[in-house]
Amino acid sequence: MIDATQNQARPQAACYPGFDAAFEAVKERIDGALTGSPGLIRSYTAHLAGARGKMIRAAALLACAQGEDGGIPADAAELAAAVEMLHLATLVHDDVIDDADLRRGIPTLQRMYGRRTAVICGDYLLAASLRLAAQVGDRERYLDLRLPDYVGRICLGELGQHLNNGNLELTAYRYLKIIGGKTAALFEAAFYAGALFFTEEERLIRRYARLGRQIGMIFQLTDDCIDFESDEATAKKPVRSDYEQGVVTLPLIRAFEQDPAFLERARRGKLARAEVDERVRASGGLDDARRLSKRYYDRAAKLLGELGAPEEKRRRLTEILDRAFYGLKLQPAAKSGR
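^ that's the sequence the OP posted. Answer follows.
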């Protein structure tokens, strides 16, 4: 195990005294960027300020950046806002692709203002994200983040999903490669960026990045299960919609593998949604997805233990890991970090 007390923390001129103060600063930065955008686009971006979400990626970046004394560099909060803005841009574009009506409990931009307007707003949010990242005081640290590389991986993952839309022959291996880009890459970026503020030890930074990737994979697999198990009121977004949109996820892939007759009926386009849900459950598709998620969870827990992190940091990262794994069914024990 790495002794975190041996890590040489990077000096920082401005620092928030603790996680809560830094997290509030991130929320204010995001709200300011959304409601203070140029007049031509402000009514659209301001609409998104009411659907900020849980900001898990921003929270992860801040937790990773937190020092031995509990302080968090102001530049880390700036990058956390940039990462969250980038995530928001991907959601706006996702909603256009999926023709989604609801996101985080409110109507989507594309539902309210049309697809073309939503695409342009998503592009603007990407530019706003890069502008926030560029305001980090230490330019060397910003270059270390390699944000454009992560953006590229996210785009390739999204394109991979789109190109496999309706592909009933999609393999589990290929699907995991897709979500490794479209979902896990941004989690990895958040953990990596936070670690850069905490330590200069490359080996430890890589461990933080791997932890973020594992958590990102868990997050997507949990979301895949939610699509078959939850309702729209609980999830605050469209559910039971992946199959209708042609998105083939791991529970369905496993169901097809276990039941060739079910796959053949899908090829003929004769499946009602109720039958899809029933066959995914009966074939063990959901159980298989959860088992794989648990394997990622165990790897992540092992990595977390190897960080040698201070107690508060360990607790916060454990909460993020548990939230990714349990999703909407987060248990009280998980909330406390036990």
